């Protein structure tokens, strides 16, 4: 007789493990199926994000920034460090230690909440049956009242640059270089390409980024994107837009890449090449032919606003479904689905999901860009104030970038907030809260902000939408 659960979650990444924990908290007998084996050879929870994505990349971003500061900025503060020594092995070991601490923490949370961690793969069949193939042992069929599909995504492969994880790597391989490449190529100027390119540029690589699209960060407010491009170029990232890679040829320790742009065909040789052109839903082996779940033409699982699939009692979340492929979006969908199963009416506000690029300065945004609002034809106003006018930013030597608001001129509602600068990932949460509570820009204008703080630039940008900014000179827009 097959074992029966109230909830079976397939996938133990941020969306899946959170869905499992919340379901268990709500009193359901819950299992989470996860097949990942980590680099130490042990089963691991946390998915791409904790193991080979968000967390290890942030560890290297922070370590590499400290190295860069010691090399470039400490002298400005009167701190002499002499000749710097880069111990890349120790830097990578620290990254791995952070990963193990967090993934081990998830395993402990499973124990504390009595979630069964089933180590292996799961496939959904008809009637909410799940075929579980353990990493060791015999296959078994499980039954569930509810199934949550949370298998995540994998990097997109491109035939013109096939990944071997030696010379040509994806985002996972780019976290494991054992030496700093002298010349590094990056295909893709999106979030992953910019973050990983930044890490190795700070540590000494000559980095060239090839982006097929003509616009830099097309999803980002273009005033912010253009300023970000200037800052990244200043930092040494050689970014080529409209550059379509047409081929690659590997040698023993290098790769020759050909690409075309508006000026014709070009060729460059790199010691290593990172392919970061996006991610796709990981649905291989997830669904049997009789599962009844509908996929769209891009292989995303079709769901409604509360992540229900076409099969009653089957849900799909995270990178498997529409919307941005972000861990925090998957997490909130995991919570929502568990609570919907329990009969609650939770809803994720997809209009208030922030995006972040953890470069330095960071780029963060929430809500609508100026371009989107302009296209709608609705009257709007904006306010943008640079961090160069902020005392705390200047004291910290972090004066690059700005805060910008986009506001509905009729209702005075905040429509979007966009930040390039220090702690942008934290500051943007003020925009998230504003959108969530339907705040007017006047609400932010009337608040008291601590001085000196980076958040004062948020206040000034809010004031600037109505030409009330104190610490920057403003000229009125011509109507």
TrEMBL record:
Species of the source: Alcanivorax dieselolei (strain DSM 16502 / CGMCC 1.3690 / MCCC 1A00001 / B-5) (Alloalcanivorax dieselolei)
Predominant localisation class: cytoplasm
Keyword Nucleotide-binding: yes
Other observations noted: The active site is a redox-active disulfide bond.
Active site, per annotation: 451 (proton acceptor)
Every FAD/NAD(P)-binding domain range: 5-334
Record-listed FAD binding positions: 58, 122, 319
Domain Pyridine nucleotide-disulphide oxidoreductase dimerisation as annotated: residue spans: 353-462
Pfam family for this entry, one: Pyr_redox_dim
GO cellular component, one term: cytoplasm
Class of this enzyme: oxidoreductase
Cofactor comment: Binds 1 FAD per subunit.
Subcellular localization(s) per the UniProt record: Cytoplasm
Amino acids binding NAD(+): 188-195, 211, 278
Protein name: Dihydrolipoyl dehydrogenase
Family per record: Belongs to the class-I pyridine nucleotide-disulfide oxidoreductase family.
GO molecular function terms attached to this record: dihydrolipoyl dehydrogenase (NADH) activity; flavin adenine dinucleotide binding
Gene Ontology biological process terms, A to Z: 2-oxoglutarate metabolic process
């Amino acid at each position: 007789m097959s074992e029966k659960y109230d909830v079976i979650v397939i996938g133990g990444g941020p969306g899946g493990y959170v869905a499992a924990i919340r379901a268990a908290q709500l009193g359901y007998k819950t299992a989470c199926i996860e097949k990942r084996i980590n680099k130490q050879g042990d089963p691991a929870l946390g998915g791409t994000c904790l193991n080979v994505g968000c967390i290890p990349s942030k560890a290297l971003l922070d370590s590499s920034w400290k190295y860069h500061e010691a090399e470039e900025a400490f002298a400005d503060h009167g701190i002499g460090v002499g000749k710097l020594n880069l111990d890349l092995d120790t830097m990578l070991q620290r990254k791995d230690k952070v990963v193990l601490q967090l993934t081990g923490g998830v395993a402990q949370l499973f124990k504390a909440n009595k979630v069964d961690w089933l180590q292996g793969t799961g496939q959904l069949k008809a009637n909410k049956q799940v075929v579980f193939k353990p990493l060791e042992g015999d296959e078994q069929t499980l039954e569930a009242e509810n199934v949550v599909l949370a298998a995540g995504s994998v990097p997109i492969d491109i035939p013109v640059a096939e990944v071997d994880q030696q010379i040509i790597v994806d985002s996972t391989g780019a976290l494991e270089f054992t030496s700093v490449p002298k010349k590094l190529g990056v295909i893709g100027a999106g979030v992953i390409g910019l973050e990983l390119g930044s890490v190795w540029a700070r540590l000494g690589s000559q980095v060239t980024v090839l982006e097929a699209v003509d616009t830099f960060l097309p999803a980002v407010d273009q005033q912010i994107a253009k300023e970000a491009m200037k800052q990244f170029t200043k930092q040494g990232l050689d970014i080529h837009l409209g550059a379509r890679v047409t081929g690659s040829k590997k040698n023993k320790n290098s790769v020759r890449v050909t690409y075309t742009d508006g000026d014709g065909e070009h060729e460059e040789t790199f010691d290593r090449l990172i392919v970061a052109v996006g991610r796709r839903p990981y649905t291989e082996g997830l669904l049997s032919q009789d599962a009844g779940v509908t996929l769209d033409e891009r292989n995303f699982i079709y769901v409604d606003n509360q992540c229900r699939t076409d099969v009653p009692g089957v849900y799909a979340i995270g990178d498997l479904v529409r919307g941005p492929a972000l861990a925090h979006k998957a997490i909130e969908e995991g919570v929502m689905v568990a609570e919907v199963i329990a009969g609650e009416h939770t809803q994720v506000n997809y209009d208030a999901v922030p995006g972040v690029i953890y470069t330095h300065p960071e780029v963060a945004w929430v809500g609508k860009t100026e371009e989107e609002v302009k296209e709608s034809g609705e009257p709007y106003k904006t306010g943008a104030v640079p961090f160069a006018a902020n005392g705390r930013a200047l004291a910290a030597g972090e004066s690059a970038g700005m805060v910008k608001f986009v506001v509905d001129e009729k209702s005075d509602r905040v429509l979007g907030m966009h930040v390039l600068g220090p702690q942008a990932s934290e500051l943007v949460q003020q925009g998230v809260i504003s959108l969530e509570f339907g705040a007017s820009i006047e609400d932010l204008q009337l608040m008291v902000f601590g001085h000196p703080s980076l958040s004062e630039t948020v206040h000034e940008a809010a004031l600037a939408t109505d030409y009330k900014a104190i610490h920057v000179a403003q000229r009125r827009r011509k109507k």
